[in-house]
Amino acid sequence: MLVLALFASAPLLVSVQAQDVQEPEGYRGDPYRGPVPKTLKGGKVLSTDQTFELWQTNQVAFVDVLPRAPKPKNLPEGTIWREKPRYAIPGSIWLPNVGYEKLDDATAAYFKAGLEKATGGDMSHPVVFYCLDECWMSWNAAKRALEYGYSDVAWYPEGTDGWGFEDHPLEEIKGEPFEQDREK
């Protein structure tokens, strides 16, 4: 009986997965992990092979936007906080927390400064945004870069999951310092 019920529900599962995810009008909020669109209005969407080819040219800025886990506020005195290491596409700049639906002024300024650093201040310089597979953070960041006026924006929706799956190299990376981090 259970087997029949599972087979009977299989077409429903396939039809849900086969549906295209539409781009939202604005930015996507919670949940940030889930099916993503196949498009980015005004930008390019890259496969792993295309991303690897661009990476090999050494002519494209790569921006990782994986959010950084916050340090718990109520750690007992003397507790050592160790941030989880981030492994990224070699040569990338990591701008954590810039892919949320809404950015406060400080985070928006941090994002703009990071983009300027990554592109050498050239708003026509090619830039690829990524995070993890099916992560809306990278889509949000790429969309925001287009709105800031960057003209050669690409989004790699498979992120480091897709990159690593193909056995492409990954390297440990540190996030660009945020102004509040520098004051501590």
Q: What topology emerges from the helices and strands here?
A:
Layout: H1 2-18, E1 44-45, H2 48-57, E2 61-64, E3 86-88, E4 93-94, H3 105-119, E5 127-130, H4 136-148, E6 153-156, H5 159-165, E7 171-173, H6 179-182
Parallel strand pairs: 1-6, 2-4, 2-5, 5-6
Antiparallel strand pairs: 3-7
Give descriptors for this structure.
single chain; 184 residues; alpha/beta; Oxidized Rhodanese, domain 1; five-stranded parallel sheet; two-stranded antiparallel sheet; 12% strand; globular
Concise summary:
The chain has 184 residues and is α/β, with parallel strands linked by helices. It has 6 helices and 7 strands.
Structure report:
The protein has 184 residues and is an alpha/beta fold. The chain has a single domain (31-68, 84-176), classed as Rhodanese-like domain (Oxidized Rhodanese, domain 1, 3-Layer(aba) Sandwich). Helix content is 36%, strand content 12%. It contains 6 helices and 7 strands, in the order H-E-H-E-E-E-H-E-H-E-H-E-H. The protein has a 5-stranded parallel beta sheet with strand order 1-6-5-2-4, with helices on both faces. A two-stranded antiparallel ribbon has the order 3-7. The model is unreliable at 1-18 (pLDDT under 50).
CATH homologous superfamily?
A: Rhodanese-like domain
Judged by helices, strands and strand pairing, the structural class is: alpha/beta
Q: Which architecture does the CATH hierarchy give at level 2?
A: 3-Layer(aba) Sandwich
Reported by name, the CATH topology is Oxidized Rhodanese, domain 1
Helix fraction bin: 25-40%
What is the helix tally? 6
**Average pLDDT number:** 88
The largest sheet has its strands arranged as 1-6-5-2-4
Number of domains: 1
Question: Which strand-content bin applies to the residues?
Answer: 5-15%
Task: State the name of the first-level CATH class.
Answer: Alpha Beta
Q: Which regions are unreliable across 5 or more consecutive residues at pLDDT < 50?
A: 1-18
The value of Rg in angstroms is: 18 Å
What is the N-to-C succession of helices and strands?
HEHEEEHEHEHEH
Inertia-based shape: globular
Gap between N and C termini, in Å? 61 Å
The count of strands amounts to 7
User: Largest sheet, described in full?
Assistant: 5 strands, parallel
